[in-house]
Amino acid sequence: MPEGDTVWQAARRLHDALAGRVLVRSDLRVPRFATSDLTGRSVLDVTARGKHLLTRIEGGLTLHSHLRMDGSWRIFAPGQRWNGGPEHQIRAVLANAERTAVGYRLPVLELIRTEDEEDRAVGHLGPDLLGPDWDADIALANLGKDPDRELGEALLDQRNLAGIGNVFKSELCFLLNVTPWLPVGELPADRMASLPELARKLLEFNRDRPIRNTTGRRGQDLYVYGRARRPCLRCGTPIRVAEQGDGSRERPTYWCPVCQPGPAPDPAPRSRRGPAR
Q1: 29, 105, 149, 251: which is the annotated catalytic residue?
Q2: What number of other Cβ atoms are within 10 A of residue 83's Cβ?
Q3: Distance CA 269, CA 277 (A)
Q4: Catalytic residue flag (residue 145)
Q5: pTM for this model (two decimals)
Q6: Over the range 212-238, which residues count as b (16 or more CB within 10 Å of their CB) and which as e?
Q7: Is 227 annotated as catalytic?
Q8: How many whole angstroms separate alpha carbon 210 and alpha carbon 12?
Q9: What is the predicted pLDDT for the residue at 270?
Q10: How far apart are CA 140 and CA 121, in angstroms?
Q11: Which of 49, 51, 200, 240 is catalytic?
């Protein structure tokens, strides 16, 4: 599941493959930009902004993409078979003489003017947990603007701080010893103050790791996420799962009923207890 750490890794791979090289092939397979041709232009850099990817191209252009649930960018050497999915799922191809970047299942793909339109695309985001704009005080102030909002929902709101997804939401709440349904304003002051830097620490720890880990233990990578009915790594109580969201966008949310006291719904039906797909 792409979250801030995964997107940061994707940006680094794309930057290493494309930056400083001239494009010899450009193919944007979305109707609005299907006739756009970037061939002959150099890629200047690729950077992550929260869960967004910005590929900046010579001539003041930015290719803005977002992976959401199952999008991906794959890098291939000349002659290597593309293997990220069927042909009809390809949304973008950018190639130089040495590498080809192929974007699969990208729900957001647009070519925009770097100076005029990047802010429209990502300017609404809060401080980026892995970015140069990180500011813990601003993130803390953003989270505190709606004290009645459920903590899990506030963490997922990219306008508060950018980079947290459903995995880190559940893991952060476990480390804070509260349920994701606790109103933000009821989080003890000391834990509220530590939240932004704890989130940053988790993402920084994982930005170079192929397998996400929040526990520091081998073979026991996550405390609660995806572990419904399995024993809590701290107390042995079976982990629970229930949906959290506004009805239109509910997400499976995991917690330990002993280590994380506070408000929580009844456990989800057995058929819905698996990890998010």
Answers
A1: 251
A2: 9
A3: 17
A4: no
A5: 0.91
A6: bbbeeeeeebbbbbbbbeeebbeeeee
A7: no
A8: 13
A9: 47
A10: 23
A11: 51
Active-site entry in 3, 150, 153, 171: 3
C-alpha closest to that of 20 among 131, 112, 97 = 97
3-state DSSP call for residue 87? helix
Return the bridge partners of 62, or none: 56, 112
HSE value, Cβ hemisphere, 13 Å, CA-based, for 233: 17
**Residues 150-171 pLDDT 10s:** 999 999 999 999 999 999 999 9
Residue (of 68, 275, 67, 268) closest to 171 by Cα position: 275
Q: Residue 235: which residues within 8 A CB-CB, separation 6 or more?
A: 256, 258, 259
- Please state, as a whole number, how many other Cβ atoms lie within 10 Å of the Cβ of residue 199: 24
Task: Tell me the C-alpha distance between 151 and 176, whole Å.
Answer: 11
Q: For residue 93, what is the enclosing H or E element?
A: strand 90-95
Active site residue 2: yes
Q: Is 217 a catalytic residue?
A: no
